Amino acid sequence: MIYSRIVGTGSHLPEKVLTNFDLEKLVDTSDAWIRDRTGIERRHIAAEGETTVDLAEHAARRALESAGLRPDEVDFIAFGTTTPDLVFPNCGVLLQGRLGCRGGPAFSVETACSGFMYALSIADKYVRCGEAKRALVVGSETLSRITDWSDRSTAILFADGAGAVVLGASEEPGILSTHLHADGQYKDMLYCGSGVSKGFGPDKVKLSISMVGSEVFKVAVTTLGKAVDETLAANGLDRSAIDWLVPHQANLRIIQAIARRLDLPMERVILTVQDHGNTSAASVPIALDRAVRDGRIKRGDMLLLEAFGGGFTWGSALVKY
Ligand code: UT7
User: Fold this and answer.
1) Rounded to two decimals, what is the model's pTM?
2) Is residue 213 lining ligand 1, measured as CB closer than 6 Å?
3) Contact 250 CB / ligand 1 (< 6 Å)
């Protein structure tokens, strides 16, 4: 039996930091409100000209370095992003060109905040069936490019960053299961209303995120709660089996609700939202990389990864690290 196992992690945040106090000067908000309602303290913003693939390349090289692999040893790239550099070629291919690992499949998936979970699930299947041996899975975003900086309901949340993992084929179990879902009836709850086919229109403000925040919040909590139950049930495990929750970093209060559902103390939850806000597809691999590097997550630990975003789309994974 072949499994896929995480053999390396990496992440990267752009240099420029935007604090809650900086945002107080842009919109009618306060550091206290943002901390209290979201847990966010600061976020990172890409420099002018710095792209999603630029951020991804840093994260990918770090992940490969930690796996002890050369870039040309990668034979599969799955890239989650909602903020691609170009209409085409896709970000997976652009990254492949930078790394110089030619020939294997490279593609991106645009499932918003669950983009990394979708990419991870697809890459896992390819490794398990023997068609890929070393897969690079990336989540990278420059959400600052589609943020309306005059809208206080979204400007305080979204930001830029990248995370990556390398999956290797292994006889030992690594990724135990992945679970993907979508429900298109919620398309108007969280979206960016412009696009290539629909058109961008003269009103540039439409090229920005719209969100019914309180509704998204409620559905996220119930849906992720069910996703967590589904993931444990699929593996015949009780919630006590989980060592670490590595959640999508959108809002501290959503994360706390899922931790309660798992009966996990917050010390067993990887929390990075305070440092980078909601980086969409990048948030889970950024959190994972941080906890691996600071030594909290160790080989053999049982991890539950989950994410929820626009569409709605959502996904979870049970991982023996
Ligand atoms: O990653 C994809 C999934 N996305 C999410 O998970 C986001 C989910 N939603 C959220 O995180 C929360 O809904 C928000 C953080 C966006 C908003 O928090 P909330 O507790 O749901 O606030 P609300 O939208 O119900 O608004 C409460 C009040 C309103 O004022 P009134 O009507 O009570 O007078 C808002 O106008 O807070 C006001 N408000 C703000 N005040 C200061 C909304 N945004 C702000 C702000 N600063 N930035």
Assistant:
1) 0.97
2) yes
3) yes
Residue 176, both tokens: 């135990």
* Strand intervals (E) in 248-288: none
Least confident of 35-39, 135-139, 153-157, 191-195: 191-195
**What gap in Å lies between CA 305 and CA 288, rounded to an integer?**
9
Mutate to test the pocket of ligand 1, among 35, 37, 158, 278 (most ligand atoms within 8 A of CB): 37
pLDDT given at position 197: 87
Can you spell out the DSSP letters for 68-129? T--GGG--EEEEE-SS-SSSSS-HHHHHHHHHT--SS-EEEE--GGGHHHHHHHHHHHHHHT
Tell me what the pLDDT averaged over the chain comes to.
96
Beta-ladder partners of 78: 107, 137
pLDDT, tens digit (0-9, with 9 covering 90-100), for 125-156: 999 999 999 999 999 999 999 999 999 999 99
Which atom of ligand 1 approaches the CA of 309 most closely? 2
- Which residues are annotated as catalytic? 113, 248, 278
Phi, psi of 47 (to 5 degrees): -70, 165
